[in-house]
Recover the amino acids of this structure.
């Protein structure tokens, strides 16, 4: 299990806890993540400007991975989705392929279409597997958590070839269950975080997040668990702002899945960087002792 | 009896519909039968009713090119709920993105994109990784990031 680590833009700057916990968990479970400094942004943020150019940026990243003979593992769901979509377009859309090949040529690269793209959670689910994870659990967690899938880990589902069902997803719930934690059901479980329009209309974006936080609060979950840096910016980094804008209170800790899994694998809390989580996780960790 | 006056026609551009269909992502526009599943599935529509994917699609079908200058077309959050549920596989998220691309072609660029393009061309990623960021990374034992990529600049500037 060896992957080019497509770390994306947000994680290495704004989610060092996610990056560190992912690297530690990967190491523990025998997934080798190879750093590739040549990677650029996946292209997704430029989709509104020009889908064609944005997808070409994604294909360029896939070509870089192919040069190194590696498949790609992402930690951001939007990167996973956009790189996968670019791969599909490159293979199925002749007109786009021609455009992308022309652009690659100018950059001195070629691409054959062979690279496989997977989100780290999917690598854990499919490559490592629930059973192997189970064998490595040192400390089952007595916690109730609200799982947030986000959008691009699941959708558009046709590019993921039925990996999971966006209307009734289960992979992340199973990954949570194997840690001993209980995934609680809650109202707006499938709702988007709103991060996609934070820079366009903050009020609507925060309202989307607020609606989910309301339901998570009602579910009495001890924490939220998620797998995308931007979702975490919405629920963790912006939680206090949402509380003040909407005159409410949540104090809901938001954990990255590798942080949760890392605890269950017996990693030290320093190795999982809980001090970076904006909503304090201390009392939660105290309870788990 | 006077014939009904047809002087008050809405300005329609019959080529607009085909411009959308010919654009990457807009291919399935013509399959829409206006059932409204997209709008019913849209989390943005529930918060701000100006954003109504069914109506945006309708305007594209009719050739109402002035939809390009509507502020609300930028409110799509890219959650793909409409895309998943559309019974006609219109791929609504992609059609609306095609409409945004056409707005850009006509010179209507959302201000949030302008700064983003600048940063991405300059360093290849959306966030600056300066000394401070690298100091934090070093403390955690994470590899230093000191490489910029000009690939995006080359790809965006290519004629």
């Amino acid at each position: 299990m060896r992957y080019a680590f497509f770390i994306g833009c947000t994680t290495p700057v704004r989610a060092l806890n996610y990056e560190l916990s992912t690297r530690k968990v990967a190491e523990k479970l025998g997934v080798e993540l190879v750093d590739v400094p040549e990677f650029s942004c996946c292209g997704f943020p430029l989709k509104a400007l020009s889908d064609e150019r944005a997808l070409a940026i994604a294909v360029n990243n896939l070509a870089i991975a192919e040069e190194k003979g590696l498949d790609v593992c992402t930690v951001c769901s939007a990167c996973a989705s956009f790189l996968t979509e670019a791969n599909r377009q490159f293979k199925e859309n002749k007109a786009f392929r021609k455009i992308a090949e022309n652009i690659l040529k100018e950059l001195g690269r070629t691409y054959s279409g062979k690279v496989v793209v997977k989100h780290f959670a999917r690598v854990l689910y499919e490559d490592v597997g629930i059973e192997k994870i189970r064998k490595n659990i040192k400390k089952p967690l007595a916690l109730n958590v609200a799982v947030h899938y986000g959008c691009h880990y699941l959708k558009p589902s046709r590019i993921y070839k039925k990996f999971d069902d966006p209307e009734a997803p289960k992979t992340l719930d199973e990954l949570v269950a194997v840690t001993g934690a209980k995934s609680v059901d809650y109202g707006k479980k499938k709702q988007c975080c709103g991060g996609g329009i934070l820079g366009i209309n903050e009020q609507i974006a925060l309202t989307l997040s607020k609606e989910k936080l309301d339901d998570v609060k009602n579910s009495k979950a001890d924490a939220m668990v998620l797998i995308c840096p931007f979702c975490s910016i919405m629920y963790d980094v912006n939680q206090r702002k949402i509380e003040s804008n909407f005159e409410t209170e949540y104090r809901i800790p938001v954990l990255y899945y590798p942080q949760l899994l890392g605890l269950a694998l017996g990693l030290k809390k320093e190795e999982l960087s809980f001090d970076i989580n904006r909503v304090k996780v201390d009392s939660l960790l105290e309870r788990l002792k | 009896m006077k014939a009904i006056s047809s002087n008050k026609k809405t300005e329609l551009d019959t080529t607009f519909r085909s411009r959308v269909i010919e654009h990457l992502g807009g291919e399935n526009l013509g399959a829409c039968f206006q059932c409204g599943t997209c709008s019913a599935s849209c989390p943005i529509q529930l918060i701000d009713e100006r954003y109504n994917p069914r109506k945006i699609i309708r305007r594209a079908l009719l050739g109402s090119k002035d939809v390009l200058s509507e502020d609300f077309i930028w409110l799509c959050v890219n959650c793909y709920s409409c895309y998943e549920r559309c019974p006609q596989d219109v791929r609504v998220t992609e059609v609306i993105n095609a409409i945004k691309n056409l707005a850009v072609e006509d010179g209507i660029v959302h201000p949030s994109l302008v700064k983003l393009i600048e940063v991405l061309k300059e360093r290849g990623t959306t966030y600056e990784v300066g000394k401070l960021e690298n100091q934090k990374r070093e403390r955690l034992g994470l590899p230093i990031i000191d490489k910029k990529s000009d690939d995006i600049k080359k790809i965006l500037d290519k004629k």
Q: What stands out?
A: Residues 202-219 of chain A form the longest helix (18 residues). The first strand of chain A starts at residue 2 and ends at 6.
